[in-house]
Amino acid sequence: MTSDGKNLFHNLVEYAIHFQCAPPPPPPPQTCIAISKSANPVNGSRVTVSDIGAGRISLITYTLSYTLSNSPNCNNTDARIYDYIPEGTEFLPSSATDGVTPDPSRAMIWAIAPGSSGSKQFTVVLLDAACSLNETIHNRAKIVMAGLPDSIQSNEVKHEQVCPPVHGENRSPAFAQDELQVYPYPIVAGRQHTVSLRLINRTITNTTVTVRLQNSANAFGIGIPFTAFATRTVSIPALGNIIVEVPATFARSGHYCVCVEIDIPGYGTIRSCRNLDVMEDLRPGVPDTLTFAVGNPTPFTTDVMLDVDNTCAGFTAVVSPSILTAMAPGEVRQAQLVTTPPNPVTLGSGCHIDVRGYTRLGGRWQPMNEGIRKLDVPPVQIRHPSGIAPWLSPYISFRDEPVRVSVPNSICIELQNPLDITKTVTLVYEVARFGAGINFTPIATRTVELPPRSIAKYCVDWTPTTADHYCVLVRVLQPNFAPQEAQRNVDVIRSPWRPELTVPVLIGNRDLISHALQLQIRQWGIDPFYEPYLRIPRPGGGGDPAPDVIGPGQQLQLELAFRPRAFADAATVTSLAFSASQSNPLRPLANPTFGDVQRVDVAVSMDGKDVSGFSAQFAAQPEMKKVYLPMVVKQ
Question: Which of 22, 281, 425, 438 has the smallest number of Cβ neighbours within 10 A?
């Protein structure tokens, strides 16, 4: 195109923009529409996260002040105020103006009419889950009105959270904590289970904590008494992440509430629980009744309220009774949750229905530490609903490890049928090279019948044809439920961890377009002086860091390596309270590993969307061998 042609094109575009398209209307003046936000504690305050079980409840009350003029010059119509419950908090029932409650998107919505002004208010509880999300709780409200192209935003209100020096890796409510896991689940009476706990030391000081694992004679419920079944003393290095595993055997099968109390020197006690219902045989349009215990854990007679938070679209969920009146201290009663899925529906979405408990204190409802979570999962389920990476399935195993080329082996998956009827499932077994974003190849399909109340491994023969590390995926197909997938992308390193170790990995892009590549890496039980990272290996050692972009169809051959940790981020330096001149305030540990598991987890995202991930697990450090000499007693 000639230069004249280019000018003609530019002129055409300018004309179309300025003369053919109506310019956007200016925002209305503040005299027409206005909204502002305040809070108690005030904006900018530091607020300690709640630990309700330990008697610490932190509330934030938000107040929204608004004006919607009825002046003819404003052209206002009916409008709505939107304010969302911040992540890391939960709504306090009966705390909102006009009795408003959050919708499934966690939005608080009020309708307002022209000529009105005033304020709306609601209160949230600051949860310890906020510690795993970010360092600050942000909140902003808005007014939305028909005919107005953009919403009118309020000012932002912020609260800096104060977290325990040691806490779990958790993004869920106090009764469905992610850092606490039980395998297998539901409980199988008489079988040894593994209860695991993940803890993070946020400080630059070595910290020793006492861990008490608890369960209840009432098995499953809200506000019920607990007793300890195991106690461990755990030492966590500065900035260290630890996994604690405790064997446990339970007297009955089914659901259990399992809790943990952690005593932290200089801070106090924190508490979290995991109360999950995953064994109901949900059916479209058929009511399902779950009976559970409700107790009054307070030292005084009071009412207990049960509040339902339903995130399952189309489901109805009703708890009865919703208020248990005049409960004596320590008294336990029964309640029921009746859940009805829609019809038609494909079940197994993983959505949840929570029932939270509250006690009445001084005319106001106060949150309890307890609740229960009902999940839309098949009765034969193969992955933990939350808190464990999808590629870390404990249900998948090899008959022989390590896997060796041309040596016959088997891939197994452990399945539990907790029901009183036989369940039929179809299993599809697939393998891929070790890494993330790599295509899986099916190797076998089989249909099996699971006897009532059974737990067993179901295996297929497999002989690897290449000398490689492998990822395994098993799909479980059940009538009326969405397919489930379990993955085991774990490279088991047969030697103890050392900083010079490297692990080859492959990351692939199966799409025909480029993506931004994001890697989230976390180590467990490994010297925090060192940090894991992915690099492009060079002959002779070393290499450049993994790229930020992965091309269409590209496969990146990388390696997991370790280097001394650097703290270049000023915010991190400030929050950890050491001098910015100290690039690394830590020193290498004499014993480079700790806890019961030594592992590195790598979560892979592309354009912010989770793709998959992988883990490298290392052998435990060998214990010092002791030589016992025969004892000789001289006469």
Answer: 22
